[in-house]
Amino acid sequence: MRKFIASALLMSFVACSAAPALAREENPFITSREINLIELLAPPPANESEKTRFELAEVIAVQSTRTPEMVARAQADSAENIWRFADVMGVKFKPEQLPLFTKFFQRVVDSEGAVVDTYKDVWKRPRPYLYSEMVKPVVKLSHSGSYPSGHATAGTLMGIVLSNMVPEKRAEIMARAAEYANNRVVGGVHYRSDIEAGRITGTVIAARLQTRDDFNQAFEAAKSELRGVLELGPEPVASK
To answer: What CATH number corresponds to the domain at position 225?
Structure first.
C-alpha cells in the first residue's frame, strides 16, 4: 500500500475559488464562488484511517464480484452527460431531437465541474487505485482528487433536474442516477464516501440552481421541448 500525505491547505481555497472556471466549463449556471463545499461537507477520511481501510475493502470486494455486464455498464457511465438516462427515457430521447434540452443540460453538467473541481484540488484525496495496487480499475483513470465524486455529483444533479421535468418517471430516473454514481465504485475509481459526498453536492447544486432566473427560464424551455418530443402532455398537477 502506497502512503500519501494530504498536502492541501484550506487557505488555498480562496485562491482556487477566485480562479476562472476550467476550460471545459464553458457556460456553467453556477460556480464554486457561490457554493462553499468546505462549509457543506466533512473532510474526506484520512488516508490511514479505519474508514479508508474499510472503504478500500469494499472497492476490492466489488472488484472481485463484478461481471462483464457490470464492467461494460461502468465503462459506459464514464461519459458525463444526460444521455446516460436514455434507457429510462425511451427511444425518442436523442440529442438531435432536443437542441434546447441538449444545450441546457450541458450547462447543468458544466455547473458540476465549476463547483466540484475547486474542492477536489483542496482535499486532494488519492483515488483507490493510487492508494493500493490491489485495486484494478476498469474505467478511464483521472488525475483529479477522489473527493467528492464529480460523477456522483453530476448524476444526482442531472437526475433531480430531469425528474423535475418528467415527474412521471421520477423513481426510475433517480434509481438510474444512483446506479450511475455507484458505478464509480464498480469501476474502481472512487470510495463510498466520495459517492455520498457527491450525492449531497449534487442535491445542493440542484436546489441552488432553482433559485436562479437564468436557470429557471432555460429549464422551462428545455422541459417544454422534452415533454413535446416524448409526447407526455401537460405536467401532472400533483408533481408541483
So the answer is: 1.20.144.10
